[in-house]
Amino acid sequence: MQASTETIRITFEKSHLVTIGEKLYGESLELLRELIANAYDADATEVHVDLKPERLAVRDNGSGMDEEGLREFFRIGSQGKLRDPVSPRFRRRRVGQFGIGKFATLAACRRFRVFTQRNGFAAEAVFDKDAFAENDTWDIPLTRKDWNAHRGNGATVTLEELTKSFSLPEIERAIRERFPLDSPSFALFLNGVRIQPRTIPGRKFEVFAGTQYGEIRGELVLPNTAMKDVESSGIECTVRGIVICRTLFALDAPILQKMRGRIEADFLPITSDRSRFIMDTPEYALFAEIMQRELKKILRQLKDLEERKERAKADETLKDTLLRMRRAIRKNPDIAPPLLSSTGEIGEGGKQTEKMSPQAAPHEGDSIDAMQVTMQNMTNALRFPPGNDEGVKEPPPQKIRVKNLEGKDSIARKIVIGGIGITCALEHWGRESPAAFTDGGIVQINMDHPLYRKQQEKGKDMLGFYLSVLLARQVALLLAEGDTRKAFTLQERLLTDSW
């Protein structure tokens, strides 16, 4: 038998047209976003979404479609947006192309109408799900209309006999999630009310990177207050003006959960329903790598900022604690034997020295070598005349620069009591290090100690009391000269009188 060649016609079941369209979208609101995105691609400056119980309409003032454009609209796999990837008026880079997605609207209704006007042409096409299924052909009715000069160019897509429900809050959320509401050339209205962009007050971070594929640019915001809208968390990633998704780029730092902002990367490939990036591409791999690097840099900045804020609050608490300690020492004139006059310092053996001149007095910012009278000398100096000390003028706790155990500069507080200085520094020494210790006459408070962290969470008063406990203990240990019982007694007296 001689071999022969025949042909097989590839056919497409009409019922699958709707089914495939439905599968392109994960939720009904994606259909609405697709209709608005088409209006955006058509250079619309206004898009009106009108919701009624029985229908949903999306009306725009874009370029509209002539007869050829309307017929192409219903052509599956049209190459129109590929041929003209940039809109003529606003030079918007169009996303996607006319394809099967429009038929997914039938997942939410039984019929949709497309009315359009362009430069004198006006017509309406109706796609009825039931009528299309019963008809043997692939034709749908097209009705020519009179040109409405007041209406002007544009298009209206109306979903009728809705089979899925929509709510105004859901629609507003869907619009906010995907479209540039702050654009001066694009406004969205919901039932006649314009949807305004939301301004988020907070710390802003600019992002910019150039790649071989195109630019990555945008702005991220860490809000000053917690955002109530949890669903809108994450960083908006846009392609050609349309938000594709929100993501944190696989980083799970808790502070990033609060981050908001928008990043533009028009070169990224996306799926046909504009809801996801095509991730197994070199473009997306580079994009994700750059964004992870930028976010880690921001995290370092935020950590440094948080540490500065934490240190500033702790420093203020330490200043109050030192003032309390000064009052406590003044209430206990018998804690050290030598007398201290109200006008001078005590030298060796309890003899009064000359009053320090203003030129010789320590100044804020001086080094520890120039300023500090170490706490080892306090046993020869901490005694005050009983009675009222209002005439004694002593400076408030000053900030000074000292060297820590690692040889690095550290900011400390020094308070002068009758000419004698007590210096206290707050440093990060690690969870396993002691809560406090004295080194070179400086009381070192460990900010990493679990007890410090616990009291810090409870507020300024509890942290202040905790610092008083540590400071009173260190002072008492030095004054007690190895007498444990005396040290406990002194600590109790100092702590009680300071609070």
Automatic annotation (TrEMBL):
Task: Write out the entry's keywords from A to Z.
Answer: Coiled coil
Q: What is this protein called in UniProt?
A: ATP-binding protein
Q: Where are the transmembrane segments?
A: none
- Residue span of region Disordered: 334-363
> Which species is this UniProt entry from?
Candidatus Kaiserbacteria bacterium RIFCSPHIGHO2_01_FULL_56_24
Q: Has UniProt tagged this entry with the keyword Translocase?
A: no
Q: Cross-referenced InterPro entries, in alphabetical order?
A: HATPase_C_sf (IPR036890)
* Record keyword Transferase present: no
Coiled-coil parts of chain: 288-315
**Pfam hit, one:** HATPase_c_3
